[in-house]
Amino acid sequence: MPRSVATAASLLVLLALLAQPIAARADTQLKPTPALKTLLVQAGAAGQRLSFDGQVEALRQTVLAAQVAGAVVQLDVKAGDRVKAGQVLMRIDAQAAEQATAVSEAQAQSARAALQLASQELERQQRLFKQNYISQAALDQAEAQFKAAQAQANAQLAQVAVTRTQSGLSIVRSPYDGVIAELPVTLGDMAMPGRALATVYDPAALRVTAHLPQSVASSLSVAEGTRDVRIEIPALGEAGAAITALRVQLLPTADAVSQTMQLRLDLPAKPSGVVPGMFARVSLPAALTTVAGGVPAANIWVPRTALVRRAELDGLYVIAASGKPLLRQIRLGAVRGDQVEVLSGLSAGERIALEPQVAAQVR
């Protein structure tokens, strides 16, 4: 084969090899992007509800503090224990108080002896005065000594009562039936007046406290909507999905910093597993509240399939003005079936992508 013919054949093979990736890239570029399904976000219709974050609190919660100084020499409970009213929780070293009590009792005995002697002396002087053996001045002096001894005895008895009370303060007792929530001391710790020793709460009476914006709270009709107010405790699962509030109270004061008003909702009974400090969500019918201008307030609900979860963050792909989907962080509320409530981060009238996987491929 001539050399020129072989060279031409080699060039043709090389061009064929180079054309293959170009054709593959062309096919890739011409491959159509999957259609992006979107949804126009609208405010909830009648029957929808507004949700606000809240926290479980105890109606009766007491911080027991030390009233005397001393080391903790006896500790009979631990955090989480159930206690009865009057039960001894701990004892503080009371040697100094007991010694002071002993001194006061000895002084009281001395004062009683002096009073008895003054009483006998007064009786003797009175008999002598009747027989005209002493003057009126001598009788008056005996009466004064008796009254002074009587006052001294009363003062010593009062001092004994004080020292006994001080000695009793070294014993810390539970004020009512409850549960030990916190126990910040251990055996041997030094207790000082005012230092917290234990926190006790009554598990039979709990409530949920939520902070409502003034625009919502000012138009909330608590009396009419008590039956429609719902409490959700997500940690309880289905058992805490819809709890009816026993009593609803809107405090008549507003917080100067957050500009919110406090709404308190008493739990009808203690569900299993509910403790103070747990997260709760308060749900109000949209019909009970209004926003500025008297327009009924409503919440926003989106499909759960449209959500994007990354670590602890929740987001949605929102269609921008350019038509491209942009990932935006949102804050979620209650879940109802395949719908989830959006508390913040999304407004009515915006359009979202229903398929996050497809929206992530759009550039």
TrEMBL record:
<keyword id="KW-0732">Signal</keyword>
<dbReference type="Pfam" id="PF25954">
    <property type="entry name" value="Beta-barrel_RND_2"/>
</dbReference>
<protein>
    <submittedName>
        <fullName>Efflux RND transporter periplasmic adaptor subunit</fullName>
    </submittedName>
</protein>
<feature type="domain" description="Multidrug resistance protein MdtA-like barrel-sandwich hybrid">
    <location>
        <begin position="64"/>
        <end position="200"/>
    </location>
</feature>
<feature type="domain" description="Multidrug resistance protein MdtA-like alpha-helical hairpin">
    <location>
        <begin position="103"/>
        <end position="165"/>
    </location>
</feature>
<comment type="similarity">
    <text>Belongs to the membrane fusion protein (MFP) (TC 8.A.1) family.</text>
</comment>
<feature type="signal peptide">
    <location>
        <begin position="1"/>
        <end position="26"/>
    </location>
</feature>
<dbReference type="Pfam" id="PF25917">
    <property type="entry name" value="BSH_RND"/>
</dbReference>
<feature type="coiled-coil region">
    <location>
        <begin position="105"/>
        <end position="159"/>
    </location>
</feature>
<keyword id="KW-0175">Coiled coil</keyword>
<dbReference type="InterPro" id="IPR006143">
    <property type="entry name" value="RND_pump_MFP"/>
</dbReference>
<dbReference type="InterPro" id="IPR058624">
    <property type="entry name" value="MdtA-like_HH"/>
</dbReference>
<dbReference type="InterPro" id="IPR058792">
    <property type="entry name" value="Beta-barrel_RND_2"/>
</dbReference>
<dbReference type="Pfam" id="PF25876">
    <property type="entry name" value="HH_MFP_RND"/>
</dbReference>
<dbReference type="InterPro" id="IPR058625">
    <property type="entry name" value="MdtA-like_BSH"/>
</dbReference>
<feature type="domain" description="CusB-like beta-barrel">
    <location>
        <begin position="208"/>
        <end position="285"/>
    </location>
</feature>
